Amino acid sequence: MNTHSLDLELSSSQYAYITDAAQSGLDLTGDCSFEAWIKLEQLPSVAGKPMMIVTKDNNTTQRSYDFFIHSASAPNGYPDKLSVSFSSDNGTHWTSVYANYSFGAGDIGKWIHVAAVIDVSVPSVTFYIDGEVVDGYVAGTDATSIYNSTTDFAVGCQKSTTPANYLNGKIDEVRVWSDIRTQQEIQDNMRNELVGNEANLVGYWKFNNDYLDATANNNDLTAVNSPVFSDDVPFGVKTINDLAIASVKTINDLAIASVKAIGG
To answer: Where are the domains of the chain?
Structure first.
């Protein structure tokens, strides 16, 4: 049951990561997909920095991939747009794609499911917001593979020598796949917890009061600067009280229905 999310504060430079030496399956080199639920507390354009969702990029010479929301300072002007970039070498050649959707003030404090499906060899990226396709703008297509870098994998920041570009908000149900997910697969599973043994699922963090990877790869994360877990979640029963209230409502509904049936 989905009981918690991870609350990351930009002001406290909070994130979670696993070292490259400890991870398994996150050195993606071909087709892949990223998914997460996010609840922003601030827009990147307000913060003046991109906000990273998942990355394996040290921002110098060991650069693989970034799934993030761009800021107003982005080149070519892509403020607050869901974005993907990946490099085929040490960062010289890139493919960068930006969704034709900008997060706005109305998105602050609201749970939103975001996904990016990458067909590396084309190259192309298909974005999904709450399970619906969002077109993207390709800013560069120099890379048709993903570099197997030695940098760490991170959730909520870019893990460079000096970590940067922190996510400001809550995040939940982070999933990394080594295949191309279909829209139907995304829609069917976005509001459900997975088991962890699904085909091509290489990293899966439920953040249910822990940093454990639910897959057999055991890519358990380490938290930095003491983020906290929240019982504010995008789907599922949030608290025991909610469950009790839901049960009472169900019993009451049954009783009312029975009375109506007898009276009818």
So the answer is: 5-233, 238-264
Task: With a cut of 60, say whether residue 155 has pLDDT above it.
Answer: yes
Q: Which residues contact 203 (CB under 8 A, 6 or more apart)?
A: 25, 26, 153, 174, 175, 176, 213, 215, 217, 219
Q: Please give the structure tokens belonging to residue 85.
A: 């970039």
Coil, helix or strand at residue 105: helix
Does the bond joining 123 to the residue before it have cis omega, within 30 degrees of 0?
Answer: yes
Is it true that domain 5-233 has CATH number 3.40.50.11260?
Answer: no
Maximum separation of any 2 CA atoms in the chain, in Å? 76
| DSSP track, 67-112 | EEE--TTSTTS-TTEEEEEEESSSSSSEEEEEEEEE--GGGTTS-E
What is the band of 238 on the pLDDT scale with cuts at 50, 70, 90?
A: very low
CB atoms within 10 A of CB 112: 16
Q: How far apart are CA 84 and CA 65, in angstroms?
A: 7
